[in-house]
Amino acid sequence: MSSREVVVLSVGGVRFVTRASTLQQFPESRLAHMVNDDDQEFKLVNGEFFVDRDGALFSYIMDFLRTLQVSLPPDFSDYQRLQREAEFYGLYPLANLLSQEHLLKPRLEILEVRFSLQEMHAFFRIFGSCSTTIEALAEQITVFTGQQPGQGWNSPFLSQKPLVPLPLERPSHHDMVFLCGTEYSAGDQFVARYVSIKPDKRKLINGTNVLGLLLDTLLRDGFRLISTRTAGSEEKVECYTFERMKRAAGLAIMENQTPGSSGVAQARRS
Fold first, then answer.
1. With 60 as the cut, is the pLDDT of residue 57 above it?
2. Would you call the peptide bond into 199 cis, given omega within 30 degrees of 0 as the criterion?
3. How does pLDDT run across 196-217, given as a tens digit for each residue?
4. Potential cystine with 266: which of 54, 76, 211, 254 (Cβ 3.0-4.6 Å)?
5. Distance in angstroms between the alpha carbons of the first and the last residue of the chain
6. How far apart are CA 56 and CA 258, in angstroms?
């Protein structure tokens, strides 16, 4: 059996086909002993190992053996049962990772967009509970500036002069600020600010249009609009609040934690 390259398992009626080397990732585990015919509890029936355990949970165990990482669906809740299955198979590094349930569970993420119209330009400020989301959104948004003749707020024509990209203001890791529209400069010249949000290639100057594209972008990214409100007594600020469940990053065994070790596993985020 130890020389067989392909192993077939029937776990609770669910059939799995894998390499023997995958099941031998952790030599001290019962699965490795099974491949080597050292564990008589696993019966070989018609060329398949029969295992009287939960087949659905075993799919996560197979994923771990193939990737050395725990990555579970957002709606997964059977942490204790899966940990018990890992202990049954002698996969104690996996059981240890599953004990860190708080790191594996998805977290609720909140994001708020604040928008206000001020004469001929619009002001945006975006707050987020997750700094990585703000970083990713900041990479999608570009503000371009340039001078144009006095054509007004609703002009659909870009300035003939080259537009210069401006960095977004980042008061903290959790928020960003930017403007669009026009401001009076000198003579009949205006300073224009256009906003582009990837993957949309347009450069928009109208604040309402930018707001619509921004909200659509967040909805496509999995956010759900949960409330709208107006704040401020003098300057009316529209506040749009979104939420989504942010999937936890996978946990993996540390590089210095060899698969053959059956001790306590250390985790790192993938």
1. yes
2. yes
3. 999 999 999 999 999 999 999 9
4. 254
5. 34
6. 27
